[in-house]
Amino acid sequence: MRFRFLCLCMLGLSLNAHAAFSIPGFELVQTAPVETSLNNPDLADPVTIWCQQFDAAKTTIDIAQFYVTGEAGEPLEPVLEHLRKAGERGVKIRFLMDQHGLRMSNEATLTAIKSIPNLNFQLIDFGKIGGGIIHAKYIVVDGKSAFVGSQNFDWRALKHIHETGLLISDSKVAAQVQAIFNVDWQAQQLLAEGKPVPVLNQQVVAADESQSAYLVSSPNAYNPAGVGDSETELPKLLAKAQQEVYITVMTYAPLSYSVKKPAPYYAVIDDALRAAAQRGVKIHLMISAWNTGKPYIDYLKSLQVLPNIDVKVVTIPEAKQGFIPFARTLHSKTMEIDGKIAWIGTSNWEGGYMNTSRNLELVIQNPAMAKRLGELQRQLWNSPYAAALDINKTYPKPHPATAK
């Protein structure tokens, strides 16, 4: 069985060898939900990329995830097989997962990961550090290449969900991603020893916008040297917009994701969007149908009535096999500004992601990448899956199985 899936993955690598839209240092990666018209032949899929990364590893693989879940015969299985092969040939693997992700994880997948040779699996309660969770999804290989994207280590994210990521070969950015992993791995060890985790930044760290591509992260207090603050950078980029902005994100609201009722107000992003629209910038915002529950839908309607803001709700139809919990949705977290700037990351656009949780975002100031990302967004915007938000419509409450 293991050999069969290994062969299938290798076949996929061969078939997809031509699929590569890239600029120096970065390759755009997409998951298009099966049985939709959203596939792009020039964009590689994460299964291919992750298998290639693991096969190329010489010394180390570091992986950080919120949760993990697989199914027999589904796309995560060959990924785990290639990760196992890396461990068997002596590659040292560290796997860091947030403790709060256990409830969403599949026990069989956890067992399979923990059984991989040379793999050190650790849980971290990031709530004891920044107050949120490890929500970032990324991989670092040999400290020289990395993958950052919206794809969770979840078979559904590799087959049934709209996702966007980046393969990173830029050595400076990859080193920064490695530094973030090292900070969080050390934090886990300190927590396990009952020791405090030191704050790294007392002041907000500005991103180095002189670079054509740069990494920003959250929370600012626990970013390593040289990594800017994503919560500060997003409004700054929106303030630079002059003509048009396209945004795809699973959830959007000026509220903090919280167990508190009512949820705390969080206006950082909302204020920036409204300010851009007020000065004439056309804002195109796509959100998942999971975002239509109250009070979120009311905030979205308050945007839709404004000049220069258009909101669309994306609904991915049920798969032929029937309902799949926690699947068939928009999960990408991307922004394109004026055909000049691309933003690709792991944060939803509400409180709790860019201020208290560990998330990573890439800013690429490159017209070619911005144009290709914009095309990907317009493909979804103009598809039959995206419908204009109707301010007079009473939207159904999202299915209770469709949790974040």
From TrEMBL:
Record's signal peptide: 1-19
A Pfam family annotated for this UniProt entry: PLDc_2
InterPro entries with a match to the protein in the record: Diverse_PLD-related, PLD-like_dom, PLipase_D/transphosphatidylase
Organism superkingdom: Bacteria
UniProt keyword Signal present: yes
Domain called PLD phosphodiesterase: residue spans: 130-157, 326-353
Keywords: Signal
Transmembrane regions: none
Record-linked PANTHER family: GM01519P-RELATED (PTHR10185:SF17), PHOSPHOLIPASE D - RELATED (PTHR10185)
UniProt protein name: PLD phosphodiesterase domain-containing protein
